Fold these 2 entries.
Entry 1:
Amino acid sequence: MADLTLTAKNPTSVKADALVVGTCSTSDGLAVVADQLPQDLVRQIETLAPQLGLTGAPDEVRKLPAGAGVQADVLVLTGLGERQADGTFGAETLRRAAGAALRGLAGTASAVVALPTADEADLAAVAEGALLGAYAFTRYRAGDAAAKAAAVRTIEVATPFARSASARTAVERARVVADAVHGTRDLINTAPNDLYPATFADAAKAAVKELGAKGVKVTVLDEKQLAAGGYGGILAVGQGSSRPPRLVKVAYAPAKPASKVALVGKGITFDTGGISLKPPAGMPAMTSDMSGAAAVLHTVLAAARLGLPVAVTGYLCLAENMPGGNAQRPGDVITMKGGKTVEVTNTDAEGRLVMGDGLVAAVEEGHDVVLDIATLTGAQVVALGNRVSGVLGTDEVRDAVKAAADAVGEQFWPMPMPEELKANLKSKVADMVNSASDRAGGMLFAAVFLREFVGSTPWAHLDIAGPAYNEKGAFGYTPTGGTGVGVRTMLGFLEAAAAR
Ligand code: BES
Ligand code: MN
Ligand code: ZN
């Protein structure tokens, strides 16, 4: 990850390849938001903005020659949009503007960032956004292509708070958060021939060592241990693949924890749909069907690195959903962990099968609250689109997740679990079906199914099907490919739980 430091120096006097400043939209057109820039340079940019096609809108990033009076070679303008009523821009706007600028600087070595920070929360957002934007996945690129795509290596953030102790703490948190989000993105972006259940489990062990997450214990259940433990859902989904499934438990247990939280993640390393095969068009994106498990792993590691006084156990439900000769069939009846039976009416509704087992395992071990996170339904994308995730569950936990998401700048929206959908669980032969004949309300039905495995533990389900993987253009601090969505919300939820 990029190396990020704070500086109290005038940013124009800092030697770097690029200087990043903000622009905003006003009734008089574009305004440059940087007191320290040479006055004539500011006047030139503001006067020529219409001819340069610049408005100061969010995600508008433009590189210009910096000229005399600025030590950096290149000046980067990044749009902040309109000021809020109180004259500031807000944390998420700053986070995105910093991220968009650093993303635009791929292939450049160093940058100094001089965005307006009204307080230390703004500074934290700028630092976090810059690090989140300075991301590149170059594992499968050679030579020149890798160098061109490489993220900025050195970032200096110019701020009046450079010497404050709490600013330093905020920057340390930003580093941990960015490591977690980057680690999540890396796993998602790893091709499915390289990342399958066994290698995902190895990656979990390696990440604990690499990130120096002290006090974290990783336990891996292989297919034999899964059979002994009664994990019928994970085994059924994994049986069509030559690569057997795994359950990885990642436990962080501080002394005298304020509460005990379980995080359960869907880790389908590739989802072909199984015998209920998916059509070709949407299939390549199913390399991202393990985004929930990746987010869980890195959230637990981040909680440990921050030393949160909350016990957090992650359950990564890992399987590859393939239509091999031993694959489960539509019509199979399976016995889930805990003993409930499921008639598998559609093998493409596999996520809820692995998650049901994971939820039972979490609940058996006794937690104050359980969150689960999954790229669970296409219906989530239909209902909320590619940038807003759904959250369902026990009213209080669901609302706490929504509040945590709002605070960290991730978009989640609460969805209901209407009582009438319970009837759609009915099977002619088993306790329930995994896929209802009625497609309406698919995201809600999936949550109603999961609820069957949660018992009375307070719980929320995060459906990140759309937002987990960005198949469109990059924006703000969000790259194409794996986004890492959910990590910041779950970490924020844990921090709030620690404070309660
Ligand atoms: N992994 C998919 C859901 C998904 C769809 C994630 C699009 C990301 C983007 C999941 O396993 C799935 O196939 N769900 C089915 C369920 C249906 C068969 C009840 C779906 O949503 O179509
Ligand atoms: Mn599926
Ligand atoms: Zn799936």
Entry 2:
Amino acid sequence: MSGTSRLILVANRLPVSVDLGDGQVNIKASSGGLATGMRNLAKAEQTSWVGWPGAYPENDEQRVSLEKQLREHSATPVYLSSRDAERFYEGMSNSVIWPLFHYMVDRMPLLVSDYDDYRSVNERFADAVCAEAGEDDTIWIHDYHLLLLPGILRERLPRARIGFFLHIPFPSSEIFRLLPHREQLLRGMLGANLIGFHTYGFARHFADALLGTLGIEPELDRVDVDGRSVSIGVFPMGIDVQSFERLAESPELPERVAQLRQAQGVEQLLLGVDRLDYTKGLPRKLLAMELLLQRSPQYRGKVRLLQIAVPSREAVSEYKSLRQDVEQLVGRINGSSGSLHEAPIHYLYQPVTQAELVASYRAAEVMVVTPLRDGMNLVAKEYVAARTDGDGVLVLSELAGAASELGEALTVNPYDVESMALNLDRALSMPEAERRERMSALREKVRAHPVERWATSFVSTLEAGERGPEPRDLRLDSSELDRLATTLAEQAEVIFALDYDGTLVPIARNPELAVPDSGLTELLDMLAGMSGVRVCVVSGRAQASLAAWLGKLPIDLVAEHGVWSKRANEESWQCHIDPSALGWVSDARAILETYVERAPGAILEEKTAGLAWHYRNVDPYLGVHLARELRVHLVRHFAQLPVSILGGRKVIELRPQGLDKGSAARDSLSLFGTKAVIAAAGDDRTDEDLFAALPDGSISLCAGTLATRAAYRVSGPEQVRRFLRRFAETRTLPRG
Ligand code: GDG
């Protein structure tokens, strides 16, 4: 990290607790995992926070005093009014995104109506970040409250380094697609340079959602968007290991543990520590405990579950009814499975201090962490860190992110109450040697990945990556585009080298439908008729369609990426390959035909010297899956032959080696090496070969969003045509 750069951390809540009682302002640093993780980073560079302080000042005096104190904690406030709290926080964030991302679709309100408030609070966060950040700073945004923020910031600070980390699960794309405003939320996330998740599974779901919702085909660890490369990474969050070990080894601990054990008065203690949230699976955990006592009565009076339920989001109605359900269940189970002397469940609806928490971890033989879905679950890791004595059993839900790291726990399916009860039995009766062996492996993992390491690894990956969108902003607005065309029109000699599909005409559902309209043919005709102007269409299309559609115009044509070329005003086409070197085609056809059969909607395009398998009309998931498989198949099969296998926009193509649009323009049409200024336009990867071959002084336009080496970017065929028209209009004007 450079000494001068700054790191701006943005989270819904600032890592402080604010007390505005009696007109006074009191601020205390809070010790959440996030704040701890950042402490090490803070040593290396200037760190500041932007977020909601959790309180709303009552008057100006209080506000000034609050902000002064927040500055001492390097924190800038974003205030949430009661309407914001209701709609942005309790509404869109915690009643829509939270349940849906945890697969609890039925917990969503029937009507999703808080998106506009969610967006406007995200914009206010952007205002606060922009007031703090320069383009050279690194910005790290946290969590589901701020999914739109990376995108909003990207528009305002195009070159900023922006990281985004999601602390909760990213759901399977089949669930994600149910979310209203899903496109905007995904686009918002894509404003970041690096998007991090706790597990590989969440990253994979995110990549699937990009494909299913936006039609974008990501690689596993990155995706190209608007000419930027966005990295997707897996960064499992750890805990503040030192602080838990320190508390676990403190001289007061044995006394605390003894008191707790004595008060509980049972032989074995099971422990649960959860925010009271429906994702944490409390009711089923309680039912598993009840079933254990029914099936194995020998445990009655000898074991107890101490369940610490920390109050959470009490203003959200789903949380109110959950509290009622849990409390009723505890009452029912204690009523039926308890006795005059004891209750099998000790339920606490209040937070405890960290020292009490660690004492509970040490007092419990078995820790029961059974969320129905959880991003990571730090409680599981804290229990392990606190067991410096090497004993204790962790029962862990398979559906917590932590399960992908902590394989030595007793993992359970939290929806299978019977099997949970069996696993509680197994945990309670586990021999000491096995307990210690498992705990030792768990401790090694938890200690090796403390939260400081998580934070450093995220920030260094972010800082090692590309900055901003592109080295310079390539995008041309209409007036810049017009100016460029006007300047070009002043050149004595100009050659246009233009791709066809996606550049002069929009991509059509079926390649046969991309017939040129009369506006296009007239434009090309007019350009080619001007003195000092030459027009060449350089395409990957088959010769037959170019000949039929554009063959009568006075323009040069290149078909099949350079297999064929035709000069303007000549009838005959030149072939640039040796037909005897095409022995591989029949083999390739047989392979591609099987992929047409397997993928409804796929099309096999036959060219004179190649084949293309198009999958734009195939189900996006199946298409990408088969395209990957097909590429591997083809590469293996044709490794020794002179065949190039290329992936384009929803197409896999085979063509003779050594041919590309750049060499075609250079060799078959001798476009280069003249005095003329060349203006090239294209939209996909094959056009990059053309851009790469252009001599100095040329102009290159990329139409669309792919990462490009072109000098300028325009939105699509409409803008390319505008450029050509503008050129034609200004060139025909009498020179002044
Ligand atoms: C979200 C994701 C992800 C709890 N009760 C008390 C107390 N705690 C502390 C625990 C732990 C933290 O709160 C809870 O963290 P979790 O990870 O278990 O769960 P969420 O709050 O849902 O957090 C989650 C996490 O973000 C980080 O990315 O792991 O999946 O949902 O640190 O110790 N602390 C004290 N008293 C309590 O009563 N002192």
